[in-house]
Amino acid sequence: MWRALFLVLYLAVSAVHLYGCLKKDQTVRNITKPLLMPLLAGFYIFAAPSIEWMVVLLIATSWLGDLLLMLKGMKWFITGGVSFLGTHVLLVILYLRNISFSYEGLIVALLYILMGAGLLRTEQKWLKRYMPKPTIWMMIAYLAGNITMNLFAALQAVSSLNGGSVLILLGALLFLASDSLLFMVRFDKKLPFYGQHFNVMLTYTLAKLLIVLGFVFG
Questions:
Q1: pTM for this structure?
Q2: Which among 166, 152, 49 has a CA at the least distance from the CA of 98?
Q3: Domain locations in the chain as residue ranges
């Protein structure tokens, strides 16, 4: 009962938040965004067969990152990124225990390195139009952390292919998509619809739900 309640509330609040993003209603966004991760944590606590407190902690670091990104100013944006980097580190630690290195894993790693290098280069070219080099490299370092988390999620899926690891990998990819879009949305206010906050938060809310579902059913 409780897990269903928290899941329904998470989906409902996510829908309202996305509506606020679509309508560019800052009040709705400010009210709903701080509720997302606590509701997701509640779902996990009641749904998981046994609670892994590191999962609760990574949800908490994401919640802190959400709050920090709501504040105005580059220092809060960077601090929020540090909090989300903590989320990625915790995820990698959780993935590591399920990874056994193999030739298939090596191929996956090479593909991710190529994909990551291309993405980082693209983001670097785009960001240099909006900020000085030291700030750019901090952004690129954060994105590299997300790509690394994705790599280990893929290695986990290759090593232990099941419904949970596939859900986590899909969530990780959406998390990367959300972060990549966020950089553009944050600094370029003239982007068309596909680059607006709606898409950042749609991919983010789905990403976090899929990752948590992966830990519940894995």
A1: 0.89
A2: 152
A3: 2-217
